[in-house]
Amino acid sequence: MNTNTELTYIFGFNNEHQTEALAGALPIGQFSPQRCPYELYAEQFSTTAFTRPRHDNRRTWTYRIRPSIAMGDFSKIDKGAVRSGPITEVDCPPNVMRWDALPIPEAPTDFIDGLTTMAANGDVRGQSGIGIHVYSANQGMGDRSFYSADGELLFIPQLGEFIAITEMGKLAIKPGEILVIPRGIKFKIEPNQGPIRGYVCENYGSPMELAERGPAGANGFANQRDFQYPTAYFEETEGEHVVIAKFCGEFYQAKQNHSPFDVVAWVGNSAPYKYDLSRFNVLNTVSFDHPDPSIFTVLTSPSSETGVANVDFVIFPPRWMVAENTFRPPWYHRNFMSEFMGLIEGTYDAKEKGFEPGGMSLHNCMTPHGPEADVFDKASQAELVPQRYENTMAFMLESRYIIAPTKFALNTPLRQNNYLACWGDLKKHFNGQP
To answer: Taking every annotated instance into account, which residue ranges of this chain make up the domain Homogentisate 1,2-dioxygenase C-terminal (predicted)?
Structure first.
């Protein structure tokens, strides 16, 4: 029985990694020998096409007790409150929208049963766009595991810690960190000492990668060394196990007589990873004007059009603001890109009331938005001394595709139908003088 359950990590981002739970389990000099060490099976896992250029080709060789095909047939099951793009069950209005946090369930609820889709865009079958989900759970998944064939999963925890048990190993995750699980990787979520809640971006498009730095040069933003990968871990557990797959927007389940977490060793560059958001090196203005929020991009999924993302994952972390003669909060704007925001902790500087941790907002393509009226008045008259934004962490999922809310999102009591009121006191200040 494997005893390697330590939460240790290999550093890097999209680099080749190798790890083994038993010494000598990795073949040397080739990937698929006639007979693998320990009589394991060699299985390649690919999240890009075989023919992608070497620098962005993603694949991992796994050495496992049984190949993944040792399983029963899939049968369709109820997908609950999960939806996929395109959203066709309701129309997509251009209104600004905001929601309160999803409540913690009272009945026993695991990650799968506590998953709810708020919005989506693109086309899950065409592998473009994203799904935006929230989760709320109070128990582990037991003998169930899950994977999405529709997209990679970006977890953004807001409440509670959990252990992600994946085919490549275990990762301990807490609020202030993110977890990315590649398309197709099986996993289960085990809450650690209490309920959990957070957000999930399901990326149907190209895998997430680090944002380019451009004129910023060699340093700043997110650095490769801070991305952490799991050490190999395996279970030799016999007995019925249920694998749940999200495929073409539907849920299917298949039974097998052993744990799917039986990878004894692996080598490659497509594996789950985590990142501590406090390690993001913030760049900001030291002269005037509020820069574009793209300077806060942690990860991006490119589209076929250069510079126009399928989705950007952007954060607004603790930082200094020193801009002179400047309206410091985000300016009023209408945007080609569509924006879905969430709050992990604290207060977001443009929305001081009504936007609570665990809450969400949606500002779609060309719909105007910006700071609430009280924030505008305060920022317009503030003494512009250096200011430290503390105890805050908001994030934004920004996409080139219009983000359509689900029927649940439009009709839930969590929706703040009076959201527009925060701009209701915007006054006319024009006086005809320069």
So the answer is: 278-430
